[in-house]
Amino acid sequence: MYYLYIATGLALLISLIIDREKTLKAVKIAIKRFVNILPAFLGMLILVSIVLFLVPDKVISNYLGKNNIGIGVLFASFFGSITLMPGFIAFPLCGILLKKGVIYMVLSAFSTTLMMVGILTYPIEKEYFGVKLTIIRNIISLFIALVVALMTGIFFGEIF
Amino acid sequence: MKRNDIIKIIGISGYLLFLVASFVFGFNPGKEIGYNFISFSVDMLKLLPCAFILIGLFEVWVKRETVERHFGEGSGIRGYIWALLLGGTTIGGLYVAFPVAYSLYGKGAKLSVILTYMGASGICRVPMTIFEASFMGIKFAMIRLMVSLPLVILTSIALGDYLVKRNYKIREGK
Question: Which residue of A has its CA nearest to B16?
Answer without folding.
Answer: A46
